[in-house]
Amino acid sequence: MGAHLCSEAALPRMGPTPVSLVWLPQQRGGARAVGPEERMSAGHQGSQDGQATGEALRFHAAARGAQVRMDEQGRTALRGASFRDGIVFSQRPVRPGERVALRVLRHEPGWYGGLRVGFTRLDPARMAAPGLPPFVCPDLEEQSPTWAAVLPESSVRAGNVVCFWVNHRGWLFAKVNAARPLLLRKDVLLGSPLWAVMDVYGTTKAIELLDSGASPCVTATLGVPGQKAEPEPKALPGEECIICFHCAADTRFVPCGHPHFCSSCAWRIFEDTAKCPMCRWQIEGVAAVQPPRTGEGS
Ligand SMILES: [Zn+2]
Ligand SMILES: [Zn+2]
Hints:
InterPro entries: B30.2/SPRY_sf (IPR043136), Neuralized (IPR037962), NHR_dom (IPR006573), Znf_RING (IPR001841), Znf_RING/FYVE/PHD (IPR013083). The protein is mainly beta and 298 residues long.
């Protein structure tokens, strides 16, 4: 399965990173076979599921890779030596739609590839840390119902805020600072509690979990020096987005082609339901279009 985003770069290497990650649809889709090794996930029902789902996210204190050191609050995770054994989990399940927000604290050059993020059905409370494999991708994925992806290396520099979530269709998204969301994969199986899993891998040396409870996505409100959200163009009469009636309609949905939405509204629809409001067709992507200008015909 060569298209698997996670299967690249299991070994450290020097040199530039070919970024293969795109937000456009992957054809992989569908249910993912659960690996034969159910041992690690056995009995995940009924532990702490559902309880304390409003509690701030921390790293699970016990289930962590052999190289991970944490602060007492479980908010920061630092990988010691090597590029591997950096797996960490959230201490509680994360609901579909709930954002997991983190900041990259330290970047260590000299490795190939960085942070991996995703979700797993493994209950970290029922896992023995020595049993953890060195990598989320591909090891933990092969051993358990886990869905993760590699983030583009350019997006996981120190200081960047990364937010990731699974939507109600099982699509895994990530968002870096104020950039547009990246669709990472579309095959996360819902229906059981999902814990966030992160691999503090390679060039990503340390991360910090952020509070995302106050905002639908913390990256929308957290400023990062030198990077700000693109200003929304104010629409001319007749060219407004039909959702917000303020910004210019400058996108169209792929594949149905329906325009009439500004990029903010289009992306929000894509993230939330991924259904075109005009025709209910499934949205696979959002394309930019130039709004018609004065002097052009219809
Ligand atoms: Zn709009
Ligand atoms: Zn449509």
